[in-house]
Amino acid sequence: MKKILVVYWSGTGNTEMMAKQVAKGAEDAGAEVSCRVVSGAAPDMVKEAAAVAFGCPAMGAEVLEENEMEPFVAALSPAELGGKPTGLFGSYDWGDGQWMRDWAERIRGLGAALDGEGIITQLAPSAEALGQCYELGKRLAG
User: Fold this and answer.
1) pLDDT of 1 strictly over 90
2) pTM (predicted TM-score)
3) What are 72-97's pLDDT values in tens digits?
4) How far apart are CA 69 and CA 99, in angstroms?
5) What is the number of alpha carbons within 13 Å of residue 71 lying toward its C-beta?
6) Nearest one of 37, 18, 38, 48 to 135, comparing CA atoms
7) Domains of the chain: which residue ranges?
């Protein structure tokens, strides 16, 4: 059974809703899924997973959450992500999604096999965005 790891940070619950849909999609596709708030995750868990998804909303001037998610991402290396199927998702309130474009470039730079450009939604995720997250989970499990 393929092991999928979903790691996220959520301040309002929007990104958490997205994370749960990624996890559900992967589970429904037959994967063993661990869905964790970033404070309960470690880079070695990323290394052990067959595929991963990371979720974080845009914060401040369109950056990752700075106290938990940013240090976690900064601790990742090609040893954990090289060639690994990886997905990104998150919500935002303002701006145009620059945080996701920057994050996608960063994750690709670590050698990850990134699925698309990341799933973004403004504020609470729409049914369409949640469906995209579910499909991401299925693809990661495939």
Assistant:
1) no
2) 0.97
3) 999 999 999 999 999 999 999 988 99
4) 13
5) 7
6) 18
7) 3-141
